[in-house]
Task: inverse folding
């Protein structure tokens, strides 16, 4: 049999819920055989679409679909300039689609191609939140009633809602937060929730890199007594050396990585045993191919996976997360925000969550498809994002 080759690469953009989603469809020389992959970089989706249509597609046409590793390697270096979020997402769309195709050819789900299941389903965590500790607790109870055993707790938006800070006259609009007030309020919330729910529920919290490094060290120490399942992104990628300070001073489990797109960001944290969960955004790091390498590397150092799984990961990306989760011996937990019912119609095969577990459907490949006609009914809207225009109390720009 001659090689099956790439005949076309198409990009599907859609916004059926909150986020603008980018999905790639790789069409092969075999009639009816295609694969889908996630390339979602919601804030700059036009750039990803252009990278795929104008640059990656001409490079890919005619290539042998079986050579996933080689195509990933060559696509990464082909642009010479590499490892940025736009190009990594573009490559991920193709990479995940090639895994989907390989699975369909083999008649196996992707988790079987990776080495087979270590577990039947992936434990997920949901996002509980509220404006007050009481509201957060109510939200926690609602998740618990639905069977969730892992629950992330947040007070207000990321960084909290500043109540006491005073802006200078003439300060611009923006998503303001006060790092120190956030820290104090969150400690009170965690105390309230932990006292109410006891030790049965695994609680998580996302700092979203909103603290100054030394405050992050203090915060990680202060939350140790609440026995979190993990504390997420206490530091920014720019402050990686500070993880050692946290490690030396407390045993709060640390999760990190959703903004990472360069191997030099995760290598020292894993090799130095400075974090406990690696949680890259799989499309932002380039797809299933680099993610499985990192998962295996992390396994050697006792670091577990907790791949990023927010609403701005497409349903195809969530399916990719799930296949990695089912296979990885060092799987920790999977983030899951859920989708409204109509998204299940646009993306048939979107994994289902029952009793706090995400289940695969056992179809070959990623087990998910996209209904292009339905997707087209929800075109992406061009809006200037507001929540990422974060500001500190004096109005200066800050990390969102
Ligand atoms: Mg996060």
Result:
């Amino acid at each position: 049999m001659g090689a099956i080759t790439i005949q076309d690469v198409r990009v599907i953009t859609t916004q059926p819920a909150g986020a603008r989603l980018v999905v790639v469809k790789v069409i092969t020389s075999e009639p009816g055989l295609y694969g889908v992959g996630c390339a979602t970089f919601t804030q700059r989706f036009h750039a990803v679409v252009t990278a795929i249509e104008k640059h990656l597609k001409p490079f890919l046409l005619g290539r042998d679909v079986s050579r996933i590793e080689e195509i990933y390697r060559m696509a990464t270096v082909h642009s010479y300039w590499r490892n940025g979020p736009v190009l990594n997402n573009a490559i991920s769309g193709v990479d995940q689609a090639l895994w989907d195709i390989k699975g369909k050819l083999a008649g196996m789900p992707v988790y079987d191609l990776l080495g087979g299941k270590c577990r039947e389903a992936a434990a997920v965590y949901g996002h509980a939140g509220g404006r007050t500790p009481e509201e957060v607790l109510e939200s926690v109870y609602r998740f618990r009633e639905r069977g969730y055993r892992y629950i992330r707790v947040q007070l207000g938006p990321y960084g909290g809602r500043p109540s006491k800070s005073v802006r200078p006259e003439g300060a611009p609009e923006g998503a303001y937060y006060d790092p120190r007030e956030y820290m104090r309020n969150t400690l009170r919330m965690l105390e309230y929730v932990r006292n109410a729910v006891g030790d049965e529920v695994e609680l998580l919290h996302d700092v979203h890199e909103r603290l100054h490094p030394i405050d992050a060290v203090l915060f990680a120490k202060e939350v140790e007594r609440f026995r979190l399942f993990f504390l997420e992104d206490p530091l920014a990628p720019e402050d990686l050396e500070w993880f050692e300070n946290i490690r030396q001073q407390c045993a709060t489990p640390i999760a990190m990585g959703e903004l990472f797109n360069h191997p030099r960001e995760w290598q020292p944290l894993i090799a130095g045993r400075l974090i406990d969960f690696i949680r890259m955004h799989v499309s932002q790091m380039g797809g299933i191919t680099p993610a499985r390498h990192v998962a295996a590397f992390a396994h050697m150092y006792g670091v577990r996976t907790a791949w990023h799984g927010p609403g701005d990961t497409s349903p195809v990306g969530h399916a990719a997360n799930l296949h990695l989760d089912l296979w990885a011996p060092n799987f920790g937990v999977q983030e899951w925000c859920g989708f409204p019912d109509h998204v299940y119609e646009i993306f048939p095969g979107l994994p289902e969550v029952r009793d706090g577990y995400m289940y695969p459907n056992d179809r070959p490949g990623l087990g998910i498809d996209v209904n292009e006609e339905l997707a087209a009914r929800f075109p992406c809207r061009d809006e200037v994002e507001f929540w990422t225009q974060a500001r500190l109390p004096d109005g200066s720009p800050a990390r969102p």
Q: What stands out?
A: The two ends are 52 Å apart (CA to CA). Residues 213 and 239 are 7 Å apart (CA to CA).
